[in-house]
Amino acid sequence: MSDIANTPPPPYYAVIFTNLRTELDDGYGETAARMVQLAEQQPGFLGVESARDTVGITVSYWKDLDSIKQWKANVEHIEAQKLGRKKWYAAFTTRIAKVEREYSL
Amino acid sequence: MSDIANTPPPPYYAVIFTNLRTELDDGYGETAARMVQLAEQQPGFLGVESARDTVGITVSYWKDLDSIKQWKANVEHIEAQKLGRKKWYAAFTTRIAKVEREYSL
């Protein structure tokens, strides 16, 4: 799905989206890919990481809270969020977190 | 691997560990499982979520920075971290983040 995001030195923000899927596909893959493409075009977008086993975890990184707010209010994203709640996700938790420290190998 | 973590109301902390594995197994699965078991016994541990595709993402949740510091300094965990750097991970990034908001479906 994705690589390790190459983020700048902290502070910046992370949106941790953890979810359980329903069994319904119905355009899920296309919409998920489109949302990544769309997020990448947003101001303040810094990167995204994604993996799925039992749960799916997508972490997107953002310059500040305002960038996240704008992304959440994007019209096409709002439509996808509605479909997600209605069709694709059995459960999810979204957490907004301020990254304070980072270290890498 | 895991379910959606049932965390308390924010604020609390997240450790986002994103990694690429080497091709070497050599006890990786056992150590990874043992580290989850050990983390669960630590003071301040709130939950963990984990998934792997191309990248592995493990997010563990903690009461405060001090709990994270203690977990990082756990003797058995330090040993596992050394083996991780030497054998199991081709690359990783660890991010310490303060969860400010959370919402769920």
From TrEMBL, chains A, B:
Q: Which InterPro entries match?
A: ABM_dom, Dimeric_a/b-barrel, Jasmonate_Hydroxylase-like
The organism is Enterovibrio norvegicus
| EC assignment | 1.14.-.-
Q: What is this protein called?
A: Antibiotic biosynthesis monooxygenase
UniProt entry tagged with the keyword Oxidoreductase: yes
Q: Output the PANTHER family linked to this UniProt entry.
A: ABM DOMAIN-CONTAINING PROTEIN (PTHR37811:SF2), BLL5343 PROTEIN (PTHR37811)
Q: Which GO terms describe its molecular function?
A: monooxygenase activity
Q: Cite the ABM domain residue spans from the record.
A: 11-82
Q: What class of enzyme is it?
A: oxidoreductase
> Which keywords describe this protein according to UniProt?
Monooxygenase, Oxidoreductase
